[in-house]
């Protein structure tokens, strides 16, 4: 199955070369390219690709694009492709919803292999950054309540359970017979109640809370 991908990078030469490298085997189809965070968010909403591959330093900020795309649930998975090895950037990208953080300089073959895994929901962080990720994952937010899902209404819980299974807003809406914009509104409320920064973090909170209740 061909993996549909959105590529966002503000350097035309690099972006064009990246598109060619991804499409040359036939395993990927680039459905859109963007040169800014705003454009990436808009195209993600229009195209609903399997993966959004985002540059960190493009106009508007790659992290801003991650946060918005993740919150709207318009893409199945988000991956960063960047030169930045800063601890804070790695931590923020993962916290905001990316499941892969890839350093520019990887070979085209390695990048395709990583993105094939990302399309299946497999997280990836460049080996040189592994220790940074471990540090990030070990940090616990002391402000979160013991049972954060207790304040959710029945409808909110139904929606979060579907999101936690990996469904997009569109799929949740279809499952529950609601409009997609209604689900977006509910998710904003849910993330607020859970003190979650994005859909991924909300799903992780839900998984942990419901597992502890079993």
Question: Could you explain the architecture of this structure?
Answer:
By secondary structure, this protein is of the alpha/beta class. The chain is 53% helix and 14% strand. A six-stranded parallel β-sheet has the order 2-1-3-4-5-6, with helices on both faces. Strand 4, helix 4 (87-96) and strand 5 (100-103) form a beta-alpha-beta unit. The chain is globular, with a radius of gyration of 17 Å. The termini are far apart. Residues 140-145 have low confidence and may be disordered. InterPro entries: NreC/VraR/RcsB-like_REC, Sig_transdc_resp-reg_receiver, Tscrpt_reg_LuxR_C, WalR-like.
Approximate strand percentage: 5-15%
Low-pLDDT stretches: 140-145
Overall strand count:
6
Indicate the overall shape.
globular
Radius of gyration: 17 Å
Order of helices and strands: EHEHEHEHEHEHHHHH
Which strand order does the major sheet show?
A: 2-1-3-4-5-6
| Class computed from helices, strands and strand pairing | alpha/beta
| Number of continuous helical runs | 10
Question: What composes the largest sheet?
Answer: 6 strands, parallel
- End-to-end span in angstroms? 37 Å
- On the 0 to 100 scale, the average pLDDT is 87
In helices, the fraction of residues equals: 40-55%
Keywords: DNA-binding, Phosphoprotein
InterPro entries: NreC/VraR/RcsB-like_REC (IPR058245), Sig_transdc_resp-reg_receiver (IPR001789), Tscrpt_reg_LuxR_C (IPR000792), WalR-like (IPR039420)
Protein name: Response regulator transcription factor
GO biological process, one term: regulation of DNA-templated transcription
């Amino acid at each position: 199955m061909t993996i549909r991908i959105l590529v966002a990078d503000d350097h035309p030469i690099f972006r064009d070369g990246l598109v060619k490298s991804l499409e040359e085997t036939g395993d990927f189809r680039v459905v859109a390219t963007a040169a800014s965070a705003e454009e990436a968010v808009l195209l993600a909403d229009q195209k609903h690709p399997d993966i959004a591959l985002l540059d960190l330093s493009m106009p508007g900020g790659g992290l801003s694009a991650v946060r918005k795309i993740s919150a709207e649930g318009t893409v199945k998975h988000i991956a960063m492709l960047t030169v930045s090895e800063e601890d804070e950037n790695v931590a923020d990208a993962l916290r905001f919803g990316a499941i892969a953080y890839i350093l520019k300089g990887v070979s085209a073959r390695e990048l395709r292999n990583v993105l094939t895994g990302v399309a299946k929901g497999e997280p990836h962080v460049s080996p040189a950054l592994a220790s940074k990720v471990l540090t990030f994952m070990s940090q616990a937010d002391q402000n979160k309540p013991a049972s954060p899902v207790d304040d959710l209404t029945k409808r909110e819980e139904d929606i979060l359970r579907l999101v936690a299974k990996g469904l997009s807003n569109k799929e949740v809406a279809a499952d529950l017979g609601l409009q997609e914009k209604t689900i977006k509104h509910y998710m904003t409320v849910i993330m607020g109640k859970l003190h979650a920064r994005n859909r991924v973090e909300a799903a992780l909170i839900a998984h942990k809370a419901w597992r502890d209740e079993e």
